[in-house]
């Protein structure tokens, strides 16, 4: 632009790397822009300030920024159509508007319906056919000539053909050509497909064989030493591999197992402390009996192959462990099913090992040229064998162990729905159910077919639901559940994600129900035994000591809600509450985390075991009340019952129905609950003794125990429980050290040497946390906006003042002009009049 | 003079649908004072009306803080009007002219009571206490006492004392919060661990935490996506098959 219009803000110092926005400006241009804008907006407003008529823009969505332009156009179009509809079109039936796309009629495009194929049409695309060019560019003469040349031989007699006919003919021809091309293309496609299919059939064969043949070729090419090498290696392999397997004594096995457990434990501890080390590799999943053919982790295979490639013969520890473990588990299984079969199973596994070895050596020979794919294939093959072996093994075991029992089929499909699952297990004994589940798992191992993983994941959900149903029965089949936990555990080890999802789903349902009940009734009741069993199962399947765990933490929350929200009105409620207390204790037994609800609840339980009187020195919190009708729920005053009481385990089936109707038995259960409560207090005390405010936490409990509990009336056994609990509480030393904050990093003294900071982005303050930075930014932006707004307003006012001034000036000048005119005309009148007068005078 | 239910109903709506429309709101003074003296939930509710009288109508209330202090008992974390109560308490304690001993007493008492609180209340009260520390830096001896005695046999704070000035709160330390660092809920443990360090300048915003419900907490946890799910490595042996299983001692599977 014009250099005279440019204004440059000169800077005193040049700073490298700094970019400033405002070093060059065009004041004239920007001013004229601003004035123009004001003319369009402010001036308009100013001029229309006393007008009441308004111009309304009724175009659809003109000022609606939410609608995209395309949509706007479409809506306007439809509106237009709607307005026109029914007015003119009554007599005009055929007037369909032609739809277009990029200027081409859609109807035509549809008619042509030829697909542009990549390889067939490209050659012809560019070059037009001779006929076409002739027809199009040759003019009328061309057409005629064309006709002469092509149709000479057959249609000589019909010489004078009209131009129209000629064109039609041409069109027909081109169409025919097109069709021919299309059929050709289709046939080619078919052929390629067929070829592909054939190739696929052959491929599997070739994949196996090709490397071998290549290898042979190489051998032929290479001189003898290689062969010798091979033999040496083979021999070495055989010599060393076997001893290394045999050397595994029981002790070594135990040691390995111990090392593995130690590692897992260390992992657990790390998670318990909540130190998040994302970089830490994923935890090795536990290998269960069924995991012998754990094949879907390809990394492992890779590693092994590499070690073979180097010609090292030692088998990797992991694999061994895996096998060993498999053996072990198998043994366990064997023990479970039949003790006598142990030897057999070992033989079995030994043979299996041999086979594995064979496969391994085979792969070793081939290893030079092995591709990963092939390795996977090999592994797969091996797996198949292993599983076959296993199933054989099972088959061998089974007939012996249950010769007399009804026969079970050996293969099962994974049930698709819960109903089929139930019908599968219906009417079987516990052992049979277990075997069925085991076989379902084995027959549908994820390595056997693609969809099996999803199926087995579903199976976990079904099993869980089944367990819930068993627990919710009127007479809960807890023994069955006790056994069913095993397959559940195995499935969970295989599919942790799916398992956690389905358990979370159950938890969410339960919590949702609870919340609903609270909203409707204002108070909640304890859930059924099934939920309690689920909570217990969670502690079996997942590590409860983690700082955060996707399943365990929600479970904690849920249990906390149960203990604080649910009313205690019956003896069953007390038992359920105590069950949850036990769960809490079990959950935190390793991590020693503090659970306030637990202490509150135990205090409340103790409170309701006391005779009615004013509570002193302690306060009970929700759901217990210091006064009310549900007091004395656990209070026993019958001397006889007190005497005859024996500590017994509380049967869980009581929770669903209280079958003992006699007073004595109910009293006995009450006393058992009380004993349980004492024991839990003792355990709590042992657990929390390291907490700095242990005494404050236990203060109410201790007061209640020492001052209010009628110890002397209790039977002797109960007194033992009581005293052991009290002892655990009392013998803790009081130990307080004043708190001291962690040391801050010392703030260094201010120095004169420049502070060197890595600048990531110029013109931005780096210091401070993200939140503070954001705040600063906001403040700054606000300031800037405020300044800008003030400036704008000032300029607006100036503009308006200018306008007003110019208006006034205009008005004034107009008036002056008019006055002048008037005066002028008056003067001329006067002059005329005077002249007349003079004339008169003269005449 | 009214039945409890009616009292509650009246007090719940008093501050926003009665007081603003009265010509002489000070006439409610006696009623509110009596209600405040009753104790329990009614006192908590009367607080709101009283606050308006004190704030807008120059009511002088002797021993206001002492009474407020004595309102704090274990049930405050469990009652329905928790959010309202703590909102007001936050207002009352926001004055920077309060003596340090008073604030310290409040802090100590709140922390002591927090030992029985459910997690949703804990998540609210810990930032609340942090805010108190920020407003009253003199109280920071509660969490940071470098030159104190190495070992004490007793917590100097007297919980039973009704007079905040006699409670010796300033001689004590916040062991309760230290205990809560071992809380089972990860967020609570994290929040409590904040007091291990020196606090930042900015106050936490607790308005969002006041209404927190247990179900919301649960929902939040359930919806978290986990990268991987750690598993128990100990082989199960049955429902009650763990080592030293508490259940096996007390429950039977019949």
UniProtKB/TrEMBL annotation, chain A:
Bias-annotated ranges (Acidic residues): 316-358, 366-375
UniProt-listed InterPro entries: Nop14
Sequence segments annotated as region (Disordered): 134-193, 207-227, 263-403
One Pfam family in the UniProt entry: Nop14
Entry's Gene Ontology BP terms: maturation of SSU-rRNA
Any GO CC annotation of this UniProt entry: Noc4p-Nop14p complex
Compositionally biased tracts (Basic and acidic residues): 158-193, 211-227, 263-282, 297-315, 376-403
Coiled coil: none
The entry's keywords: Nucleus, Ribosome biogenesis, rRNA processing
Subcellular location(s) per record: Nucleus, Nucleolus
Function: Involved in nucleolar processing of pre-18S ribosomal RNA. Has a role in the nuclear export of 40S pre-ribosomal subunit to the cytoplasm.
Similarity field: Belongs to the NOP14 family.
Name listed for the protein in its UniProt record: NOP14 protein
Organism: Mohoua ochrocephala
Taxonomic path: Eukaryota, Metazoa, Chordata, Craniata, Vertebrata
From TrEMBL, chain B:
Domain of life: Eukaryota
Keywords annotated in UniProt: Membrane, Transmembrane, Transmembrane helix
Listed GO CC annotations: Noc4p-Nop14p complex; small-subunit processome
Gene: Noc4l
Protein's GO biological process: ribosome biogenesis
Pfam families cross-referenced by the UniProt entry: CBF
Regions that span the bilayer: 31-54, 85-107
CCAAT-binding factor domain span: 43-192
Family under the similarity heading: Belongs to the CBF/MAK21 family.
Protein name: NOC4L protein
InterPro entries from the UniProt entry: CCAAT-binding_factor, Noc4
């Amino acid at each position: 632009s014009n250099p005279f219009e440019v204004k440059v803000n000169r800077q005193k110092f040049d700073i490298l790397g700094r970019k400033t926005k405002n070093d060059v400006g065009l004041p004239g241009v920007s001013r004229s822009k601003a004035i123009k804008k004001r003319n369009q907006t402010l001036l308009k407003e100013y001029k229309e300030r006393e007008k009441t008529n308004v111009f309304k823009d009724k175009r659809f969505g003109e000022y609606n920024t939410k609608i995209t332009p395309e949509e706007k156009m479409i809506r306007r179009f439809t509106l237009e159509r709607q307005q026109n509809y029914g007015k003119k079109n009554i007599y005009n039936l055929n007037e369909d508007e032609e739809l277009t796309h990029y200027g081409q009629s859609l109807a035509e495009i549809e008619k042509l319906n030829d697909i542009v194929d990549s390889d067939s049409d490209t050659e012809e695309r560019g070059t037009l056919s001779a006929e076409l060019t002739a027809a199009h560019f040759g003019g009328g003469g061309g057409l005629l000539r064309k006709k002469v040349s092509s149709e000479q031989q057959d249609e000589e007699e019909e010489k004078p053909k009209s131009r129209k006919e000629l064109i039609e003919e041409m069109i027909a021809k081109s169409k025919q050509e097109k069709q021919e091309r299309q059929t050709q293309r289709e046939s080619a496609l078919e052929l390629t497909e067929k070829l592909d299919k054939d190739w696929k059939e052959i491929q599997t064969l070739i994949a196996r064989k090709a490397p071998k043949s290549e290898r042979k070729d190489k051998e032929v090419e290479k001189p003898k030493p290689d062969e010798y090498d091979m033999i040496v290696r083979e021999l070495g392999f055989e010599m060393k591999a076997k001893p290394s397997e045999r050397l595994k004594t029981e002790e070594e096995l135990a040691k390995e197992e111990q090392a593995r457990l130690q590692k897992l434990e260390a992992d657990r501890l790390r998670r318990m402390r909540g130190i998040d080390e994302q970089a830490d590799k994923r935890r090795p999943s536990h290998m269960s009996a069924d995991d012998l053919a754990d094949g879907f982790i390809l990394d492992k295979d890779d590693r092994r192959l590499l070690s073979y490639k180097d010609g090292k013969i030692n088998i990797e520890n992991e694999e061994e462990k895996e096998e060993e473990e498999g053996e072990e588990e198998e043994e366990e299984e064997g023990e479970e099913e039949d003790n006598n079969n142990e030897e057999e199973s070992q033989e079995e596994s030994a043979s299996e090992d041999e086979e594995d070895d064979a496969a391994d050596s085979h792969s070793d020979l081939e290893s030079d040229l092995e591709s990963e794919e092939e390795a996977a294939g090999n592994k797969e093959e091996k797996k198949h064998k292993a599983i076959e072996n296993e199933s054989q093994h099972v088959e061998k075991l089974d007939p012996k162990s249950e010769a007399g029992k009804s026969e079970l089929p050996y293969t099962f499909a994974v049930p698709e729905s819960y109903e089929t699952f139930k019908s599968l297990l219906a009417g079987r004994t516990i052992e049979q159910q277990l075997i069925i589940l085991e076989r379902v798992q084995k027959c549908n191992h994820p390595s056997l077919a693609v969809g099996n993983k999803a199926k087995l994941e579903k199976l976990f959900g079904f099993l869980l639901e089944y367990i819930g149903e068993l627990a919710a029965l009127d007479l809960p089949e807890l023994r069955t559940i006790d056994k069913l936990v095993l397959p559940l555990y195995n499935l969970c080890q295989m599919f942790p994600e799916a398992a956690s999802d389905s358990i979370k789903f159950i938890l969410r349902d339960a919590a949702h129900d609870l919340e609903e009940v609270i909203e409707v009734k204002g108070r909640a009741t304890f859930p059924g035994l099934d939920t309690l069993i689920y909570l217990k199962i969670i502690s079996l399947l997942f590590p409860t000591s983690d700082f955060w765990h996707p399943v365990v933490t929600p479970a904690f929350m849920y249990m906390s809600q149960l203990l604080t929200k649910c009313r205690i009105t019956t003896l069953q409620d007390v038992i359920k509450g105590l069950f949850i207390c036990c769960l809490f204790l079990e959950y935190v037994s390793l991590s020693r985390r503090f659970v306030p609800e637990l202490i509150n609840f135990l205090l409340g339980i103790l409170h309701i075991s006391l005779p009615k009187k004013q509570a002193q020195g302690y306060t009970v919190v929700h759901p217990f009340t210091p006064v009310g009708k549900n007091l004395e729920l656990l209070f026993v005053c019958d001397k006889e019952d007190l005497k005859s009481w024996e500590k017994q385990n509380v049967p869980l089936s009581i929770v669903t129905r209280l079958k003992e109707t006699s007073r004595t038995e109910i009293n006995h259960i009450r006393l058992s609950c009380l004993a349980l409560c004492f024991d839990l207090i003792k355990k709590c005390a042992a657990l929390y003794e390291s907490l700095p405010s242990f005494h404050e936490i236990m203060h109410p409990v201790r007061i209640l125990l020492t001052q209010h509990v009628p110890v002397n009336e209790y039977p002797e056994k109960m007194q033992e429980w009581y005293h052991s609990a009290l002892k655990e509480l009392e013998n803790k030393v009081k130990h307080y050290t004043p708190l001291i904050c962690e040391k801050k990093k010392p703030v260094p003294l201010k120095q004169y040497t420049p502070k060197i900071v890595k600048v990531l982005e110029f013109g931005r303050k780096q210091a401070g946390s993200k939140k503070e930075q954001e705040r600063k930014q906001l403040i700054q932006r606000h300031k800037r906006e405020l300044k800008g707004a003030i400036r704008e307003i000032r300029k607006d006012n100036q503009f308006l003042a200018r306008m007003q001034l110019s208006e006034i000036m205009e008005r004034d000048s107009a008036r002056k002009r008019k006055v002048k005119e008037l005066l002028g005309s008056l003067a001329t009148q006067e002059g005329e009049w005077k002249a007349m007068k003079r004339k008169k005078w003269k005449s | 003079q009214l039945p409890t239910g009616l009292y509650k109903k009246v007090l719940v709506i008093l501050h926003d649908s009665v007081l603003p429309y009265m010509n002489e709101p000070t006439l409610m003074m006696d009623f509110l004072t009596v209600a405040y003296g009753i104790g329990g939930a009614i006192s908590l509710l009367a607080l709101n009306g009283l606050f308006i009288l004190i704030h807008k109508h120059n009511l002088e209330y002797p021993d206001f803080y002492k009474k407020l202090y004595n309102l704090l008992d274990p049930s405050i974390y469990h009652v329905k009007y928790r959010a309202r109560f703590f909102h007001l308490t936050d207002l009352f304690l926001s004055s920077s002219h309060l003596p340090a001993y008073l604030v310290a007493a409040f802090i100590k008492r709140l922390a002591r009571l927090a030992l029985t609180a459910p997690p949703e209340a804990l998540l609210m009260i810990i930032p609340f206490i942090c805010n108190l520390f920020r407003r009253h830096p003199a109280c920071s001896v509660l969490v940071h006492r470098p030159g104190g005695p190495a070992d004490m046999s007793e917590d100097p704070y007297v919980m039973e004392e009704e007079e905040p000035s006699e409670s010796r709160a300033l001689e004590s330390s916040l062991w309760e919060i230290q205990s809560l660092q071992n809380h089972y809920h990860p967020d609570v443990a994290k929040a409590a661990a904040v007091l291990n360090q020196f606090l930042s300048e900015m106050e936490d915003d607790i308005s969002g935490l006041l209404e927190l419900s247990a179900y919301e907490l649960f929902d939040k946890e359930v919806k978290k996506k986990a990268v991987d799910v750690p598993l128990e490595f100990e082989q199960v042996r049955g429902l009650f098959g763990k080592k030293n299983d508490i259940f096996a001692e007390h429950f039977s599977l019949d």
